[in-house]
Amino acid sequence: MRWSTPVAIRILSHNIRYATEYPFRGEERWVIRRPKITNELRFSARHNAETFICLQEVLYDQLIEILGDLNLGADQASPLADWTYIGVGREDGQSGGEYSPILYRRSIWKLKDLRTIWLSKTPDRPSKSWDAASTRILTIGVFQHITSKKSVVAMNTHLDDQGAESRYEGAKIILDEIKKYCSDTMNKAEQQTPVFLAGDFNSEPNQEAYQLLNRDDSLVKDLCDLVAEKDRYGHCDTFTGFGFEKEPKKRIDFLFLGPRQAVEEVEVSTTGNEMSTQTAALWGVEGYSILESRFDDGIYNSDHRAVVGDVYLK
Q: Is the pLDDT reported for residue 276 higher than 60?
């Protein structure tokens, strides 16, 4: 039996659109979009210190600016800067190219391990394979909650927008990484570590990568499916474009929880007390939302909307 105080966590995932020199029609430059993104992040994380922020399509300068805004101007090296990050640029494993960073408060979470996996045939170094148009990565962090000592594995990714095969193969690599923390062979909850996976998957629910990740025998499950439709807040689609694209709106950004069989898996005894099932629940689920990205001024903060999940570690 697991009798401990749950740790409430908010997970926010947002493809913020890189700071391009050549914006699309309807797209404002980063200098205009920046305060709208950082205000969204500050507002969303204000009342939950345990919040994880998972971003995609972030260039190094954008990352530093966002951290500066979250830390109210404090330099990253300053003890006043609570928000920090893990992640690397996908092109060189340092600062080149887009990041898929995970932001967190260092006063709340202790980083125990971090890795970057390239979603290719050579996952240990910058590379791309199959039909990928761009280099793609998976950012992994193992965190321990400083107060409760509970652990969680955070993963963040951005799959290819052009190659269906590379999306499918990338999803297979991600599942292999998840298996290291919550394999089916780990029958006891104490042997498993709760995992969440966030990202822009460029795969709709009826397409290859999503189907692989969310099928019944997968180790993870779409958080949206764990919240009754009547209890979800906001939009259904996550990709919107900037208002002038021919591409339709669609849902391609997701949050997944694992291990699948350990999400709210409890039963009630005849005396009314909760009892552990064969695999005790590691996760509890409270809410799911897709936020707005465009308000009365008509400015899109990105061509994607943020996805937010409210969950708790059991």
A: no
Question: Beta partners for 15?
Answer: 56
Cα distance between residue 226 and residue 178, in whole Å: 19
- Could you please report the per-residue DSSP string of 65-117? HHHHHHTTT--TTSTT--EEEE---TTTSSSSS-B--EEEETTTEEEEEEEEE
Question: Amino acid letter at 112?
Answer: K
* Tens digit of each residue's pLDDT (9 = 90 or more) over 7-45: 999 999 999 999 999 999 999 999 999 999 999 999 999
Question: What does the angle CA 10 – CA 13 – CA 14 come to, to the nearest 5 degrees?
Answer: 140
The amino acid occupying position 266 is V
pLDDT value, residue 280 = 60
Task: Tell me: cis bond preceding 259? Omega within 30 of 0 counts.
Answer: yes
pTM value?
0.93
Show Cβ contacts of residue 19 under 8 Å, excluding neighbours closer than 6 positions. Answer: 29, 30, 59, 61, 62
